[in-house]
Fold Phosphatidylglycerophosphatase A.
Amino acid sequence: MVYLVSTVFGIGKLRPAPGTWASLASVLVGVVLFKLSFWVLLAATVLATALGFWACRARLSPGEDPSEVVIDEVAGQWLALLFPTAGFTFSANGAAFLARMREDWTCDSGGLLSQAACQVGGAFHDLPWPAWVFAFALFRLFDIWKPWLVGRADRKGTPDGVMEDDLWAGLFAGLASVVLAALYHIPLVLMR
């Protein structure tokens, strides 16, 4: 069980870049979780974090951080996704955007994007996907670059540090994606 959790059912064995594969899988599963509800994504993030600390403590000795252990990437990536998702879900602009999307992007509107969305089952129809792309890219950047608290947690060399560096990376990526979204959307709102 520890092996399955720590490698996220073997995703950690994918090469090259198992952390990136795990982050990508997290985004794809995150789409499904978000489609169920923001609260489901939040609960999954908390569960992945708790299971990650448990698995890392059970499996790793101090100083170990094997690349196949990717539960930390799942927890960190979902944390990063929570920030733009919360803003999108609970803001008035997010609600208005969804209403416009439902009116403009129906399958019979004839537009190229609407037809593409319908062909993939509308998976991205109610999803703040640009922010999720930024959250994914920024999470990978912070996880690899390891600035400030991310690097400090990584240098702890403890099983908890394995989880903490990715949680810090997720926090920073989530906050940065919200800032980028605000920088994009605020001028659009002011121009109305």
About this structure: The mean pLDDT is 87.
